[in-house]
Hints:
Largest sheet: 3 strands, mixed
Mean pLDDT: 96
Shape: globular
Radius of gyration: 13 Å
Distance between the termini: 34 Å
Strand content: 15-25%
Low-confidence stretches: none
Helix content: 25-40%
Order of helices and strands: EEHHE
Number of helices: 2
Amino acid sequence: MLTADGFDSAILGTTTSWEGDEVMVYSVTECLNVLMERDGMSAGDAAEFFDFNVAGAYVGKLTPIFVWDYTES
């Protein structure tokens, strides 16, 4: 199982992909918090960095899944 380096606090758990592989699941909100707190990024910089370098990095069928927290309006 692949993990996203430096984002252990954002792990929500695991799930099974359509191919039957177990993949790690992360909270996008917590990943952004990590970037802002650990790396001193602004919210906008963290979102841009995350979208391009983390969520946008496909590393094969075991690539982690990143989900937004559900909130009711």
